[in-house]
Design goal:
Blueprint (H helix, E strand, L loop, with lengths): L4 E5 L6 E5 L4 E9 L2 E11 L6 E6 L13 H39 L1
Antiparallel strand pairs: 1-2, 3-4, 4-5
The structure holds zinc ion.
Length: 111
């Protein structure tokens, strides 16, 4: 996979510059839409003319080259999050199970 080079116009001075996905710093964002993971990277590069930092966001993994993103923290976070979700579901399930149990007990005792 070849990393892409994007030509952008500097938002400050209007000069054309390129952002090399192989060298530029980037941040990673991950959204979950309809159960599908959408990952995007925002690459940052300083304008060689005025040093303003310009950014370009890409959602196409094919453009990113071989560099790995800082995903470890996010995976840990999402792991934690799914853990919490599971715990919440268990609490809800237990709550309803308990309610159901109480209902059965009431029915048994009152009939
Ligand atoms: Zn500039």
């Amino acid at each position: 996979m070849e990393a892409k080079k994007v030509k952008v116009l500097c938002k400050n001075c209007g000069e054309e510059m390129s952002i090399d996905f192989n060298q530029a710093q980037f941040s990673t964002a991950l959204q979950i839409i309809d159960g599908k993971k959408h990952q995007s990277r925002t690459y940052m590069e300083k304008c060689p003319h005025c040093e303003t930092i310009n950014t370009v966001t890409s959602e196409d993994k094919m453009e990113w080259g071989k560099r790995k993103g800082p995903n470890v923290k996010f995976i840990m976070f999402s792991g934690l999050f799914s853990c919490l979700t599971v715990i919440l579901l268990v609490i809800v399930a237990m709550y309803f199970a308990f309610k159901g149990f109480q209902f059965v007990m009431d029915w048994l005792l009152n009939s």
